[in-house]
Design a protein that fits this description.
Elements (H helix, E strand, L loop, with lengths): L3 H12 L1 E9 L3 E11 L2 E11 L5 E7 L4 E6 L5 E9 L5 E10 L2 E7 L7 E6 L4 E6 L9 E4 L21 E2 L5 E6 L4 E7 L6 E3 L3 E2 L6 E7 L2 H9 L11 E6 L4 E8 L7 E8 L13 E8 L2 E7 L9 E7 L5 E8 L5 E6 L5 E6 L4 E7 L6 E9 L12 E6 L2
Antiparallel strand pairs: 1-2, 1-29, 2-3, 4-5, 5-6, 6-7, 8-9, 9-10, 10-11, 12-13, 13-14, 14-15, 14-16, 17-18, 18-19, 19-20, 21-22, 22-23, 23-24, 25-26, 26-27, 27-28
The chain binds 2-acetamido-2-deoxy-beta-D-glucopyranose (NAG) (2 copies).
One 2-acetamido-2-deoxy-beta-D-glucopyranose (NAG) binds next to strand 20.
Length: about 400
């Protein structure tokens, strides 16, 4: 006997394909979205489910596809915050699997160390000038480390640089080092990682010109090194030629840093290049705040919040990366909303999800993998209540669930 679902399912999936995403909203929700493609020109983006984040101001999502887990930072401004973890079930269903109390002001987290690079989690706390680390799974216990930063006085941008403000935490391509751009102190903080204990040891920091305000970072490795480091993960020799790209929120630039792996247990950074997000290296309009930065193959992208270049919408910049890691400006395209705080490129490299914070929408934009070009919006969905400019409301993070 012919079972109807065996017969019809392949036919149906030949016509329509689906991809999924998670988007967090500062009101305290994690939203599971489904993008359905019924033809090359017909896409629809819908909200499949919504789950409470288990904390007050969910600001950041780390998605672990292999481990079927999601980790959610809490930006709550006063008191303490709650880092939550979720396990992912059928149809993207989220079940809270752990939580810990952290310092307030959590704006980013990343997995690091352990056998597979997922044994521990590091958290940047903007508001409280701190970096906290925990062993996974989260079991309600105390941090392994809670590193507090101080500054002698205000920085060159006194209102924004009143104190150290770590804004991101991420590991280098070898998994041996953790980096933390500090927007308040104009420092890229560098730690070496003990892969067994998760303990971080401070390395000499990289100092930036006063008023730069580094926010987020992303690594690029030359194609040959990227290939061999997958085979020989952890081998510093495989990381030669690596470039660190940083989005500078206060100077509204992106910078490339050459990364060296000398013997002695610490990496060093040398400033290689700085560009604005605009054609001819022209300055950002008043009020712009460069936000997120991502690398895909030999292309770099920054999101440029509140530049209103596609008025009322903001913009995304595409840069190309040469074989030696130098960047050139290529194109400026719409963010299809305002305050693009977050964006994520899918693995195939043919779609980009942009999370516009204030308009509280997720825009799906087509990308041409060979040229890196963003060629227009294919779908767009409002998630929860719209925000107000400069407030911590609206959409905070979006990630492809793949
Ligand atoms: C581009 O402009 C930035 C900001 O003014 C400046 O720091 C940088 O040196 C300029 N880059 C080039 C290549 O002119
Ligand atoms: C801004 O983005 C919205 C959402 O996609 C779109 O409907 C609108 O046409 C865009 N406006 C401009 C001027 O690009």
């Amino acid at each position: 006997m012919l079972h109807s679902h065996h017969f019809f399912l392949p036919l149906f999936s030949g016509l329509a394909t689906a991809a999924n995403l998670y988007a967090s909203h500062y009101s305290g929700t994690i939203n599971y979205l489904t993008l359905t493609k019924s033809s090359d020109t017909a896409y629809s983006l819908t909200q499949t489910s919504s789950t409470r984040s288990g904390n007050q101001l969910p600001s950041w999502l780390t998605y672990d596809g292999e481990g079927k887990a999601l980790y959610v930072s809490d930006e709550v401004f006063v008191g303490s915050g709650t880092l939550t973890s979720f396990s992912i079930g059928a149809n993207g269903a989220l079940t809270q699997s752990g939580k810990v109390t952290t310092p307030a002001g959590g704006v980013a987290n990343c997995l690091y160390a352990g056998a597979n690079g997922k044994g521990f989690i590091a958290n940047a706390h903007y508001q409280t000038s701190a970096l906290s680390t925990f062993k996974l799974p989260l079991n309600g216990g105390q941090p392994i480390q809670n590193i507090k930063y101080t500054m002698a006085g205000r920085g060159a941008n006194p209102s924004r640089q009143d104190a150290p403000h770590p804004h991101h935490a991420f590991v280098d391509p070898t998994g041996g080092y953790l980096l933390v751009p500090d927007l308040g102190a104009d420092i890229i903080r560098i730690y070496s990682i003990d892969k067994t204990s998760g303990q971080l040891t401070e390395c000499p920091n990289a100092k930036l010109p006063p008023g730069t305000g580094p926010r987020h970072g992303a690594f690029w490795a030359p194609p040959s090194a990227a290939k061999s480091s997958r085979v020989r993960r952890g081998n510093a020799a495989a990381a030669e030629g690596t470039i660190l790209f940083i989005a500078n929120e206060l100077s509204n630039t992106v910078s490339g840093w050459s990364v060296a792996y000398p013997s002695g247990g610490c990496i060093t950074l040398a400033l290689k290049q700085t560009l604005t997000p605009y054609s001819g290296n022209s300055s950002a309009p008043m009020g712009t705040k460069v936000g997120e930065i991502k690398v895909k193959d030999n292309f770099l992208y920054s999101s440029n919040r509140n530049d209103k270049k596609f008025d009322p919408n903001d913009s995304i910049t595409q840069y190309s990366i040469s074989s030696t890691g130098s960047i050139s400006w290529v194109d400026l395209t719409s963010s299809y909303g305002t305050y693009p705080r977050t964006f994520d490129i899918n693995k195939a490299g043919d779609l980009v999800a942009i999370g516009d914070q204030t308009t509280a929408n997720v825009a799906i934009v087509r990308r041409v993998p060979a040229t890196g070009k963003l060629t227009g919006q294919v779908a767009n969905l409002r998630i929860g209540a719209a925000g107000t400019p400069e407030n911590e409301d609206g959409v905070s993070a979006v990630v492809w669930a793949e």
